[in-house]
């Protein structure tokens, strides 16, 4: 199988040449079902209709990037976005600390970038990707992250008691809404309405609100006996919310009336329910305070279908489970840790039986392109999948940075560097050639390292990156034009 990557030389001014990625890679997988914001979608359902790994085989483990304990990654455009600390952080701290967003290649685990975002409360809220932008919420948000729907960004300011709606393109505030207690959840969007949760921390009462997404007008609110500490989830006209004292509520999405409520035997619940297969899945419990279990309730009869054993300690008060491919995915706390997870579990969605487990990762998993992503107490991101099932046979990627040869004159040499990544599951041999129609300068004077272009051959192993040195060696006495547009170099990848 051959694949070509075309690199195009585009002059900016006379005697200046730049190199720019022209085309890049194959389609990576047929398992596409993007998880670009907290709990999968705008309704916070936590359900992916795509495939999920049926074994605990690791695809990759990231470097220790100080990913925020209990937080969840988001995935879009072949990248994994993770909220991280510059230093080790306390997920429960309300004091802003220096944070950053680390971007990781979805298929290789290689770090693409690390961008500081300044002082932000180090809560376990997720990021949100939409239309080329990453949203990380307000500096004083508390566990509730941003959500983007219908061209609008919805987020909160924690203990200042507000939710906000902002235009996603102009970033102009459209409206804000004041709640009683802490604005603590990630908003959920459903049929033109936004659902919000609040309450005094670890106290009573709690509240669920429904507001018009266009203008922020309150449509209804429902008071609950205790803090609604998690984010709401909405499905088929029902809003599901949890309270920290260990109760699960189903509310009518139209008027807020309580359809049913059930006690989660594990108190201490600030996680978000997941809805799939006619069931509601919820996790609860806190080390040293209450039993740690994961539960499945029938969404219609609200009876418990199954629950894990308290002895197994699967779940937790910050663990929002993910559901896909007939399985639910949840974590297990690290020893004596209120926030960090050191165990990833896949459970049968219908019986609760353990399908597979792995002794690392576990915080609120995310699923995209057939891969399970989760964060461990060690600050690393773990990706689970069988490479043969999720990776293309051949996939060549080039780094996206502009690379300039600089100002050139007769007899001068200029060197630039390009990274080529093989993100496929087969080894690839790379060769190169100038495109037909290029000027004689490129045909006669372009080297890759010490080799003339027609003698270049480089093996790039699966899931590895090689640096290519491009040398343009202008002959002495050269009098040809250096401003000819449209010069191209084609790299060829051949599966070996």
UniProtKB/TrEMBL annotation:
UniProt-listed Pfam families: PQQ_2
Annotated Gene3D superfamilies: 2.40.10.480, YVTN repeat-like/Quinoprotein amine dehydrogenase
SUPFAM superfamilies: Quinoprotein alcohol dehydrogenase-like (SSF50998)
Domain Pyrrolo-quinoline quinone repeat per the UniProt entry, residue ranges: 100-284, 295-384
SMART domains found in the cross-reference section: PQQ
Protein name per UniProt: Cell surface protein
């Amino acid at each position: 199988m051959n694949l070509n990557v075309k690199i195009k030389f585009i002059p900016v001014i006379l005697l200046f040449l730049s190199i720019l990625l022209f085309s890049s890679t194959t389609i990576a997988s047929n398992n596409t079902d993007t998880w670009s914001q907290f709990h999968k979608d705008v309704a916070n359902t936590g359900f992916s209709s795509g495939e999920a790994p049926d074994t605990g085989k690791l695809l990759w483990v990231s470097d220790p990037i100080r990913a925020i304990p209990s937080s969840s990654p988001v995935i879009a455009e072949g990248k994994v976005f993770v909220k991280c600390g510059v230093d080790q952080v306390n997920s429960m701290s309300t004091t802003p600390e220096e944070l950053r967003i680390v971007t990781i290649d979805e298929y290789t685990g290689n770090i693409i970038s690390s961008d500081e975002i300044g002082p932000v409360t180090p809560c376990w809220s997720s990021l949100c990707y939409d239309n080329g932008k990453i949203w990380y919420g307000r500096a004083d948000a508390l566990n509730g992250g941003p959500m983007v729907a219908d061209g609008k960004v919805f987020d909160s300011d924690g203990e200042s008691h507000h939710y906000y709606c902002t235009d996603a393109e102009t970033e102009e505030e459209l409206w804000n809404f004041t709640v009683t207690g802490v604005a603590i959840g990630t908003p959920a969007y459903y049929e033109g309405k936004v659902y919000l949760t609040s309450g005094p921390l670890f106290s009573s009462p709690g509240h669920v609100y429904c507001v018009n997404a266009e203008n922020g007008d309150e449509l209804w609110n429902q008071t609950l006996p205790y803090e609604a500490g998690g984010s709401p989830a909405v499905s088929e006209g029902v809003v599901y919310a949890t309270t920290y004292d260990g109760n699960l509520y189903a509310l009518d999405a139209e008027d807020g009336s309580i359809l049913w409520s059930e006690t989660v035997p594990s108190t201490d619940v600030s996680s978000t329910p997941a809805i799939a297969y006619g069931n509601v899945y919820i996790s609860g419990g806190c080390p040293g305070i209450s039993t740690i279990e994961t539960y499945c309730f029938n969404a219609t009869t609200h009876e418990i279908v199954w629950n894990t054993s308290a002895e197994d300690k699967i779940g937790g008060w910050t663990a929002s489970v993910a559901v896909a491919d007939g399985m639910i995915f949840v974590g297990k706390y690290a020893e004596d840790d209120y926030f960090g997870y050191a165990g990833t579990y896949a459970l049968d969605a219908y019986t609760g039986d353990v399908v597979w487990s792995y002794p690392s990762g576990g915080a609120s998993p995310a699923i995209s392109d057939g891969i399970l992503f989760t964060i461990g107490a060690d600050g690393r991101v773990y990706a689970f999948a069988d490479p043969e099932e999720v990776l293309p046979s051949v996939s060549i990627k080039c780094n996206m940075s502009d690379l300039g040869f600089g100002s050139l004159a007769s007899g001068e040499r200029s060197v630039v560097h390009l990274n080529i990544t093989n993100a496929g599951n087969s080894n690839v041999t790379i060769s190169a050639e100038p495109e037909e129609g290029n000027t004689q300068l490129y045909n006669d004077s372009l080297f890759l390292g010490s080799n003339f272009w027609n003698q270049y051959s480089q093996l790039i192993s699966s899931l590895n990156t090689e640096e290519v040195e491009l040398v343009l060696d202008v002959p002495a006495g050269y009098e040809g034009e250096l401003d000819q547009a449209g010069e191209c170099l084609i790299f060829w990848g051949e599966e070996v």
